[in-house]
Amino acid sequence: MTALPAAAALPAAAPCRALTDRPDPVSTLHKPKILVVNDDAASLFALTSLLAQWADQEGYEVLPARSGQDALRQVLRHDFAVILLDVNMPGMDGFETAEAIHQRARSANIPIIFITAFLTDELDRLKAYQCGAVDFLFTPVIPQVLHAKIAVFVALAMKNEELRLQARQLSLRTTALTGTNKRLTREIEERKSAERQNHAKDEFLAMLGHELRNPLSAISSAATLIGLPGVTPEGAARARQIIQRQSQHLGRIVDDLLDLSRAMSGKILLSRTPMDLAALVTGCLETCRATGRGAGYTLRQQLEPAWVDGDATRIEQIVSNLLDNALKYTPPGGIIELRTGTDGDDAVLTVHDSGVGIAPELLPQVFDVFVQGASTLDRSQGGLGIGLSLVRRLAELHGGQVQADSDGDGAGSTFTLRLPRVAHGVPAAPAAQRLAPADKPTVLLIEDNDDGREMMAMMLGCYGYAVQQAAAGDQGLQLASRCRPDLALIDIGLPAMDGYEVARRLRADPATRDIKLVALTGYGQAEDRQRVLDAGFDLHLVKPVDVEHLLQVIGHCMGQAVD
């Protein structure tokens, strides 16, 4: 216990220079705290009252403690600028209390000033310093000395608190700058990516223009040749073949663009049936050989049964696009090998070619839209470079994936398709055809495009069909009511009254409700087909319509088989 003089009898002390120079806005900082530990109530009151005289002026708080245990509890709750600790206390004395305080990491650096009424020898001083003491005060305490010592530690605590606050603000600023930097970096990358995509789109549009002009030029030249005087029958027949082949090529270009758009937007609906991937690949190879696309190449196959649950049309698209890609980037005389089989739960198709290969920097992007390898506008095989993008999307719609591998330029490439494997299935048997009657059905053709209407009417007339023509919906309704055709081919995009309304009115009239209705449209999505059926049509055809397919549709619609 240390006795202290009454606080009221002590003179006031002037503020020290260290506190005068400290920053003014203390309100933003935590007030430093001073802990006074003394077991004697009177001494504790005197010392805390003395310190309280300067508390408002110096900006600190004073907390009392009656024992070493009470002091430890306070230290657990608060951080202190300095502790005034009585040496002689019952139970846990000042040395033990100081040692316990400094054993805790958070309070290990709190300065402790021992207060004692007894003169200490060098051993006691050494023990005190080993316990963490920074100074001694002897009673009776001289107020000016106490104020000066306390002021130093309060100023130091305030400076440390300011530094901690600045560090927190700097950390927040650093975090904000880091976030801004990351955002700017991301925006720069996104801008670069957008610029690359725009450049790729520009190249794609240039390629699209080239791919469209090639068949259009051939069609225009062939059509002109047919009308020239002196053209031989063989020349005219050759020109007609060119027109038909190039028209089909144009149709494939449009189909690829529409299919990719529908696939990317998730609007393709799959009609799944069990099928053998090996049998489907065999059919694609036979078509490739029959059309001459594989001429000049060695086509090898190693096909083992691999059953999948998929849409036959879309799976055939995948195989055809992979095969076309191999043909496009393999010089004549090269080797293309197709393999099918199973690997665990996957049915696997591998298409390997000995072609130009894929550069390492292009390999990760080979399935991206508008990405192609090095090519020129005069390349012989042509193509839009969207086939692989369509392959990946169709594979994903089937729950599968496709992967490209290559050892680089000139090393060929390998594309691996993986689809979920299913147990061996039995494909549905085709429906038996019915025999065609001798009489051809009468046809009403409602089409506002004069050239298209005239050509289709002429084609049907060549096959023995009697065709009535109408260029608008109201004219078509009048012809249907007057002539009572067996079947009507109706364009959906008619002016004034569209094909849907024409179909609804034909179905509503008892005189025409039994006419078979076939829609002709450039829209081929699933919702378009459903809208056609909802309007009362029997069948849906997507332009351009191949004549052979048109004849089959008419025969099917009329319950006939076409010879």
From TrEMBL:
<keyword id="KW-0418">Kinase</keyword>
<feature type="domain" description="Response regulatory">
    <location>
        <begin position="442"/>
        <end position="558"/>
    </location>
</feature>
<dbReference type="InterPro" id="IPR004358">
    <property type="entry name" value="Sig_transdc_His_kin-like_C"/>
</dbReference>
<dbReference type="InterPro" id="IPR003594">
    <property type="entry name" value="HATPase_dom"/>
</dbReference>
<feature type="modified residue" description="4-aspartylphosphate">
    <location>
        <position position="491"/>
    </location>
</feature>
<feature type="domain" description="Response regulatory">
    <location>
        <begin position="33"/>
        <end position="154"/>
    </location>
</feature>
<dbReference type="InterPro" id="IPR036890">
    <property type="entry name" value="HATPase_C_sf"/>
</dbReference>
<dbReference type="InterPro" id="IPR036097">
    <property type="entry name" value="HisK_dim/P_sf"/>
</dbReference>
<dbReference type="InterPro" id="IPR005467">
    <property type="entry name" value="His_kinase_dom"/>
</dbReference>
<dbReference type="InterPro" id="IPR001789">
    <property type="entry name" value="Sig_transdc_resp-reg_receiver"/>
</dbReference>
<dbReference type="Pfam" id="PF00072">
    <property type="entry name" value="Response_reg"/>
</dbReference>
<dbReference type="InterPro" id="IPR011006">
    <property type="entry name" value="CheY-like_superfamily"/>
</dbReference>
<feature type="modified residue" description="4-aspartylphosphate">
    <location>
        <position position="86"/>
    </location>
</feature>
<keyword id="KW-0597">Phosphoprotein</keyword>
<feature type="domain" description="Histidine kinase">
    <location>
        <begin position="207"/>
        <end position="423"/>
    </location>
</feature>
<dbReference type="Pfam" id="PF02518">
    <property type="entry name" value="HATPase_c"/>
</dbReference>
<protein>
    <recommendedName>
        <fullName>histidine kinase</fullName>
        <ecNumber>2.7.13.3</ecNumber>
    </recommendedName>
</protein>
<keyword id="KW-0808">Transferase</keyword>
<dbReference type="GO" id="GO:0000155">
    <property type="term" value="F:phosphorelay sensor kinase activity"/>
</dbReference>
<dbReference type="InterPro" id="IPR003661">
    <property type="entry name" value="HisK_dim/P_dom"/>
</dbReference>
<dbReference type="Pfam" id="PF00512">
    <property type="entry name" value="HisKA"/>
</dbReference>
<dbReference type="GO" id="GO:0005886">
    <property type="term" value="C:plasma membrane"/>
</dbReference>
